[in-house]
Amino acid sequence: MSNWEILGVRYHKFDENLIQPYEILIELVLNFEKVVKLIKNEIDGILILIDEADRPSEKSSLGEIVKLLTEKLSKRGCDQVAIGMTGQPGLIAKLKASHESASRIFTELTLKPLSDEENKAVVMSGLTKANLINKEQAMIDNDAFDLISQLSEGYPHFLQEFSYKAFEKDNDYRICAEDVIDGAFGVNGALNQLGNKYFNELYFTQIGSDEYRRVLQAMANFSDSWVNRDKIKSEITIKDTTLNNALQALKTRNIIIPNPGQQGEFRLPTKSFAAWIKAFYMLD
Fold first, then answer.
1. DSSP characters over 149-203
2. 116-186 domain in CATH 1.10.8?
């Protein structure tokens, strides 16, 4: 449906011939300015938060949009609008792809993985809340605590997924290690869910060779640190020609990142990708 109206809410398909993107941007700037002026005594400003900002493709021109938006707001003296983004490390590169100086308007904050104690505090907080809602009081064994923490490696979205699936598998109100394993590795389990959301494209769709995936498994043992051929070969048995072909193919497909300062060194793009690979093969 391209044109509809229900109870006063109307949608008409955007016609690029009638309105240009530049005009829409100007309209957006004017609207922000108007809102800030109208309620300047009631609020400190406007905060725009964009979650998972790394997911849109470079063609979305996100960097150009935020750069032009902030520049035009600044020129009109409207300095009460702030923009915040979250995303994987590749976000900065995507912003620069559409506007080289887009990243300069942000202060980059790196969020480190949670510690083991913090992992367990998060799980316990969720369990406490569940016990306030449910009639039966659930508990969790220490080995289940340890396994969830180990599988997640401190990544909040991993922690959420492994905890939720373990809770879902439990049927006696005592979450044990078996519940965690069933929830993680079972059909539609946590690993499948995380893979579908973040990693299947990198690990399965773009790679047709098990040998190449073994190279990624070896690299995952070093998280996202730089590794060379010797380190990879210390983890797996592989022919030199196969390893060279694998590294070249993985680099070309942007699945691994070459070290610009040291030839022959590579790393995985994120710690979370490494954590997922290690968790995926934990029971092997």
1. HHHHTT-HHHHHHHHHHHHHH-SSSEE-HHHHHHHHHSTT-HHHHHIIIIIHIII
2. yes
